[in-house]
Amino acid sequence: MRTDDPPSQVGNDPLSKVGDESLPPVGDVLAAIATGLWRWDNASGTVTLDAEAARLLGLPARAQTLTEAAVRSRFHPVDWNEIYGTVQLAVAEGTLAEARLRIMDDTGRRVLRTVRSRSKPVLHDATEAYELIGTLQEVSEPTPGTAARTPVTGDWRRSREAFLLDAGRALAEARSTEEVLRVAAGLSMPGFSPDGLAVFGVAGDRLSIIGHHGHQPGDDGPFSAMPLDTDYPAAEVVRTGRAVYLSSPEDYRRRYPAAWPLARRFERQSWAFLPLTVAGRTMGAWMAAFTYPVSFTPDERSVLTTVARMLAQALSRAGVAESERELTEGLQRSMLPMLGPRIPGMSVAARYVPTGGGLQVGGDWYDMIPLPNGRIAFVIGDVQGHDVRAAGLMGQLRIALRAYASEGHRPDAVLSRATRFLAGITESITYGSSGSGADESTVYDPRFATCLYVEADPATGVLELARAGHPEPAIRTSDGTVLQRPTAGGLPLGIDPDADYPTTRLVLEPGETMLICTDGLIETGGHDLDSGWARIRSTLEGYLGEDEEDGLELLADRLVQTVHGPTSHYTTGPLADRREDDVAVLLLSRTSRPEQRTDARRTVLTVAQAEPERVAGARRHLRELLHDWADDDQVDSAVLMVSEMLTNVLVHTDGDALLVAEVTGEPGARRLRAEVADGSDDLPHKRQPGELASSGRGLVLMELLAGAWGVDPRGDGKSIWFELYEDAGVFGGEAGE
């Protein structure tokens, strides 16, 4: 055996005890080469450092145990985030975790040194916890002219590609200039990250800061409005379209002596100014400032240039989107009026919600118009379409309606003039000269509009309605019953210039509320008219009335939430292709003192000779009035008798029939009184119809089914009435004539 062979280790004895010559302790060796030891216990969240490791971290040079948060504060935040991912990969693969880390001072603004860490994870089989045992060693700074920052982990180019993918995704998702600037401020570039950011925009011949990060409020004062010929790096970038890189304060002071006094107080060491260019036009400049020297190698310049291009695209998209939003919101504000001063005796609330299809204003509108006779007109309508032309036609039609109403015309005359107006302007648009050279078939695009016009007398509650193809109004009585009110109507505006619009008259009793809306409130979410009204009815019935603290405003919000709130996503209707539409809602309530309130339900309907089909609507309306009546057989009897009375008027007289139905009393002991009046003086009389007779059974049915009935002559005709009692034991049920 050669005497110069190294001694071999025996068993588990340390190498220092083997042979004649001993080696120094491991701790002394590591201290001699400025290498510290550390252990990170993931389970307890603590990090144990020896004296050298503590010194390298900028702490007192003694062994100590710190929390994970305390150690984390000593590292550059970007480096900590990257080493955390490296550690997780090493734990999963059972490999070494290597990284370079920047140690920051107590203020977190200055880099003390750069250290290299190598660690080995030790897993605990029983739990998912692990320990990291490793070393820390200081590494020297790069020499001038080389890369100022070495890669933190892995391959630098691979880290750069991952960073650019994440940055591109985040900037693409930003919807406003504020969001773009916030994303830019949070970008962590691989191996080097700026500590100060600023985005400069160009307006005319001036350069100003539109957003910054890493500076104190007020720091942007000197840069708020600089002429483009200023001797400042950002101004030069905008003038020339070329980037400016300044690796040191000396370089900044030499190239821009006039601007250096302004930049010196920020205590940065390197700067990069890059143009923000879109479609060949420089729209501004981006500044990235660093608190440590950066030499701006070709790879680093490539990253900064790519980020600047993505930032310019994001700012351009955000600017266009904000301009569109500002334009459409301004158009909406100009076309949708304020409801004006409070109306004595009435409360009004309105809402407009545009569809989610980009343009924030469409063809729906509402309006409130003071009239010369002291009354108030309420208008709601919907122009066909959701494009800019629909919005323009809506604005023109709204102005025309306001003009006709202000002249003092009755509701039917207002709509008659409006349909001629809309037909005229759509025809002129269709056949007018546009200068585009398009043939007639390409520009022909007629439009129509639905509309509901209501003239209200606040003192008496009398409402006169004219309807042009619009959904019928709904009335909520003081006891919570909701009735869809049948009203006479005509064709939508713009279809027939000579169309007529009959007027319906009704009375809004104290405590009652009328809802008029566009079809978006009913049909949005895949609903048709029937299922949509059922959805809205439940919301109206849950309204507490004028005694509720928030009143109609709360009810208007609830109606919108019914259509666009969270519950609307799982209460869709049967029509899957009908999802969204503009929503316009107008609520009118007649207020009163508590002693004026009545619990009676009362409705009035007119059935004209020319509209026999409205008898079916009257039957449906009566069922709605008796929706909570205790005896279904009595409801069927009431519907049968009303149908018989209305039909008799249409068959045996030349006039219209007027139905008045009223429910009074407490639930369980209520009375229904239904009365049909006409202009004929001929009184009906009972007959004994044969088996094959087609008439003559009306009064016989009333005698059999009604609790009481009768015929009352009037000066201009007669009325036939009957009563039904919910509890015949209370009211007796004696029939008579």
Automatic annotation (TrEMBL):
Gene3D superfamilies per UniProt: 3.30.450.40, Histidine kinase-like ATPase, C-terminal domain, PAS domain, PPM-type phosphatase domain
The protein's enzyme class: hydrolase
Keywords in alphabetical order: ATP-binding, Hydrolase, Kinase, Magnesium, Manganese, Metal-binding, Nucleotide-binding, Phosphoprotein, Protein phosphatase, Transferase
Listed GO MF terms: ATP binding; kinase activity; metal ion binding; protein serine/threonine phosphatase activity
Region named Disordered: 1-22
Domain PPM-type phosphatase: residue ranges: 343-590
Alphabetical list of PANTHER family matching this protein: STAGE II SPORULATION PROTEIN E, STAGE II SPORULATION PROTEIN E-RELATED
Purpose of the protein: Primarily acts as an independent SigF regulator that is sensitive to the osmosensory signal, mediating the cross talk of PknD with the SigF regulon. Possesses both phosphatase and kinase activities. The kinase domain functions as a classic anti-sigma factor-like kinase to phosphorylate the anti-anti-sigma factor domain at the canonical regulatory site, and the phosphatase domain antagonizes this activity.
Name of the protein described by the UniProt record: protein-serine/threonine phosphatase
Native organism: Streptomyces alboniger
